[in-house]
Amino acid sequence: MGDDSPLITLTTDFGYQDYYVSAMKAQILSVGRNLHLIDISHAIPPQDIMAGAWVIRNAAYLFPKGSIHVCVIDPGVGGCRKPVLIESEGHFFIGPDNGLFSLVTSNREFTAWQITNRRFMNAAVSNTFHGRDVFAPAAAHLASGAAPAEFGPELDEIVTYRWADPIHDSEGIQGWILHIDHYGNLITNIPAELIEPHRDESVKIYAGTTILRGINSTYTDVETGEPVALIGSSGMLEISVNQGRAEELLNIRKGAAVSVLFRK
């Protein structure tokens, strides 16, 4: 494995207190010593599948084609959910078939295989740590030249979840908070394309007991400590507090309703 070997990214809910992340990396490097490993995140909230789906949706396709993305948010580890390998648009995804790959495959062509070939797993497979014993070695073998079809049978479908689309008409949009990031920013399920046609109108946003007027461009368009609505880097409407945590200061949690009203 030289400098041209594929990148392997890691996204988990393991945190950094325990040995879990290091054990996965050790397993990968024991198969291919010179493989390139990049951490996307190990701070996904424990067992929050859709938070993991959101993070890899926004990061994975920024990497070069051929990258292998190992994603482990796996509350059903050892149960009936399948270990899967997915190829989409030149990227590979390895992890549990539990909805984690819903967003990276949404509106994209993909092929999926169930990982069943024991040759690409550890000799002993723990029922509680498939990240180390199934997914990490599978990624290493794929990066080392194994063909996807060698891992197991092709699947007709994978488990997918979807956030329901926001409801909208000419008068406004009804959505909700789908993700809260490290800074406490409240990211909604309202995409920029629903907002942009109304930029020249009087826009009023209701989130919890907070009312925001207008869509701003940056956090610093308002005074320090004040709330602001803008289109974030994910392309979604975001509610933030300049140099503060909107989650705490506005007392709004994931799943809370957000209403946007337009007036010409």
Summarize, please.
The chain has 264 residues and is α+β, with helices and mostly antiparallel strands. It contains six helices and 15 strands.
Number of domains: 2
- Indicate the percent of residues in helices: 10-25%
Spell the H/E element sequence: EHEHEEEHEHEEEEHEEEEHE
Assembly state here?
A: single chain
User: What is the rounded distance between the termini?
Assistant: 60 Å
CATH superfamily of the largest domain: S-adenosyl-l-methionine hydroxide adenosyltransferase, N-terminal
Helix and strand composition category: alpha+beta
- Measured by DSSP, the beta-strand proportion falls in 25-35%
Low-confidence stretches: none
CATH class of the largest domain: Alpha Beta
Label the CATH architecture of the largest domain.
3-Layer(aba) Sandwich
Q: Biggest β-sheet, characterized?
A: 8 strands, antiparallel
Radius of gyration: 21 Å
Number of helices: 6
Question: Could you tell me the number of beta strands?
Answer: 15
CATH topology annotation of the largest domain: Rossmann fold
- Give the averaged pLDDT, no decimals: 94
Which outline best applies? elongated
